[in-house]
Amino acid sequence: MAVSGVWCHVPVMPSTSPAPARARRAAVPVTAAQAALFDLAPPPGYVLVPGATAPSAPPVLDAAQAAVAAHRDGPLLVLAGPGTGKTTTLVESVASLVEDPERPLDPASVLVLTFSRRAADELRSRTTARLGRPTGAPVAWTFHSFAYALVRAHAPAEGEPLRLLSAPEQEVVVAELLRGSQEGEGSVRWPDRLAAALSTRGMADEVRAVLARARELGLEPPDLQRAARAAGREDWAAVAEFQAEYLDVLDSSLAVDYAELVHRAGLLAEQPAVRAALRERYRAVLVDEYQDTDPAQERLLRALAGDGRHLVAVGDPDQSIYAFRGADVSGILEFPTRFPQHDGTPAPVRTLAVSRRAGERLLAASRSVASRVPVRALPRDAVRAHRALAPGSAEPGEVRVLTFPTAAAEAGAVADLLRRAHLEDGTPWGRMAVLVRSGPRSVPLLRRVLGAAGVPVEVAGDELPLAQEPAVAPLLLALRVAAGMGADGGRASTDQVRTLLLSPLCSAEPGALRSLARELRAQQRTAGLAPASSDELLRTAVEHPEELALLEDRLAAPVRRLGRLLERARQSLADGGTGEQALWALWSGTAWGRRLERAARAGGPAGRSADRDLDAVCALFEAAARLEQRPGVRGARLLLEELEAQRIPGDTLAERAVRGEAVRVLTAHRSKGLEWDVVAVVGVQEGSWPDLRRRGSLLEPDRLGVDGLVEPPSPSDQLAEERRLLYVAVTRARRLLVVTAVASGDDDGERPSRFLEELGVPVEPQGRRARRPLTAAGLVAELRRVAVDPDEPEGLRRAARARLARLAAATDAAGLPLVPAAHPSRWWGLVATSDPGRPLLAEGAPVALSGSTLQRLGDCPLAWFLEHEAAAVSARTTALGFGSIVHVLADEVARGTLPADPAVLDARIDAVWSELAFEARWQSAQQRAEASAAVRRFLDWHALTAQRGRRLLGSEERFEVQVVLPDGPVRLRGSADRLELDGDGRLHVVDFKTGRSAPGPGEVARHPQLGAYQLAVEHGAFADLPGAPPAGSPPGGAELVHLRLESAGSVKVQSQAPLQPADDGGPSWAEELVADAAGAVRAERFAPTPGEQCSRCSFRRACPAQPEGRQVVE
Fold this sequence. Notes:
By secondary structure, the chain is α/β, with parallel strands linked by helices. 44% of the residues lie in helices and 12% in strands. 39% of the residues are buried.
């Protein structure tokens, strides 16, 4: 491969014969002759990248940088704080060694090691540009790439290359082996207390941590066994057995994880012949970010450049933030004694003293944080000089610390800050960043709020596991359904079908799906079939799209599309295709890819979103291709299990570049080594920053030492690590630093972190709302407010109207309005009241009312109209489902089709209970218990019918009767839950209630629903039932039976007295209520009536009596 205009080759050292698997993990014997082959000339087929260029002019170095660049022999520790020019110093150190007039070194004999590909690429390109000629070999490597090259050079020449496991792939391997142990496979003997946890994600994480720690310490399985015995830890002994099994599995698949890779490289480098060859080749070694090294990397360095050889380590102990990955800050703190000079004296320490990034105020804030981080072992004068950075910028910078009442207010204020910095100060989007402590916890909200505010966002790295990426999830779900792995016994569940239809694969609209379901139900009724549920009809249509031939394409196209897609994927799998090929059949069979491509080319926020989706889809196919190459992984089922088992984000060895201008949103860990003009550090909360929770508390990998137990990190050590992380975050800013937190007013709410006080600037509490957002929508809103506000000066109001007119008239190249919201035709408050041109009710036609709608109309005429005339009904709730089940069972017992046996009724409940959707399992269990209790109360009450002096006349009896009133006829209709006759032959109507509350005694006396039932009895609604009193007979009354409530140890019953004429002989209160309701419908008086029912109303957003509705309709 070619890098930065140079000859580029990976050193190859062939073995004479393949080594056994176990030997490859330990010290691989290498002869001196083989070691001499390490520095082979470029083999045939290598490409010379064109030519040398003139060297770039050397930069001007300060005295400290010049002293480092002049270093010629022996170890040296360089303390380099943020922005002190350490990369420039490293490049000049390489150039100084290569261009030394007395003892120039070949560029290929200088090795620079760092921790990220981005840093290695920058060092390579800058070094090549500085020298102005090819270097013959890469000068800068990451630790892992150098270790891989070294291990690969010693692999059998005819063998397959080692495959480096990504972190998600390693997690899957560990989880699979643990599940096998739980099922009795393998020979690992786990303690009984851990057996039940072997299949959990947490256990896999703990085991991975112990494996990594063991490799960092250089422990082989027997070494780990000895450490376990010395510590008396049977769990570590089991992990030692597991480690041997795990390494055998990796060897059999020619794979290696990151910790194992560096461990093997260290073992090789420690062999005398290899060490001599490496030291002969690399005369000078420079290491960047030395504070991030772990013990295994330190051993590799000791083999490369120990014993007083030329080794320059550049780092900053205040930026040691990767302890969770095994980094050990003691490596840099004790560097002078661990890498002494030839004469045994400690290595010298130099300090870069000028910050070229931050001004005085920014430095003061970061120094205030760093001063609280303990530093041991290093010379005090060096530490003092390291932290007393001098500002290299004349601009002092600005630091602000803000608190907000809610996380939403915090995110909104950050969006406003970024827009103002861009629009008012001219700061490019790409020179701003938002840093957080935890990506999964903070990034989704920030991405959503910033995007809605018009801030272009680029989220760094992979913050979600691949299977959870929004663009990947529907493809994997479709593959699962096509492979016969749906949630309903292999068949796709109705929820899965709906999810796929609404996904970008099909792009169906919810309204169109509802319309399609209505058409399908109508077809079933026409065919004389009982209509199924909407979701069931849609699922059947997807499985048999040919049955949609007679339906219009506007409704049926998405369903046909999904049916064809799934059939293509099924056919691909049936023909022996791989999971990757089936995924391609799904992806290529839609227009989704073309839509994303067009959006990506168009740019803007939609383009950036399309870029993210395309990246995720590409990553999916790369992962699928990689997994298909693994032994035993072929076909959709194993592919899905592998991808969905990867519950951690993928590795970001080569983090993608930012496309165009966008604000970076990333974690503080990822921000290391980067800088921006404006930086917002968000969510600095107590409990999350600092996060002092103990990591690995089950197997305690942090207590594993070479000889047994060691003391775990103390709370003060963890606090220091968290403080260093904040230090890294606040030192990324060049001009403006804003640190934010939520300060909730609740006693148990969010509290700002203790770290805010350590920045040395006043904390500024902020209100719930930010200033008017600098967006087109915000501008239009402000102009509209001014234009109609009578308190504003007339001149200002005219100017606002004129500005709105200009915005409304602005169009793009296609003639489309740029700011359509500025035109009054889009203002809901100015839209004329709609009028269908005909009355709601034809003249003389009866008004149709039922008992329940009569009550709804009395509570709020507007809600009644929206529900019954506008058909704006909301989805059926689990509360309604609960009531339906109880009512059906009560009816079947009353009719004798079911025995009054609690066990039988419970079985019927269980048969249908799974059809109800609950938000949580505990809710389902709670409601299920309440359903049984309600049925038992009914049975007890039902058994006492005769004792109450009643006999059953009917159950769930529907009725429709016309009541003639002075203003016109009314048709009363509905269904009575239960009808009973008393000893005097009078009819009583019983209404079962399954709610959690009951009306007061005064409300029952004039309960509209019961009153309507009694009025219907008076007018002969049930006169045709055998044994019923004739029409005109007075009712015996009505009652509410609350099956969820008890009173005096039995079901709660509330009775309403029989209807009586008014004292003056006029109509009863029920007739007057019905007449008033019918008059309101005829006159179309549907005004909102605020009351306690408003809190449960589904139409608040369309109600002018509510704040959220007023802004829409007024």
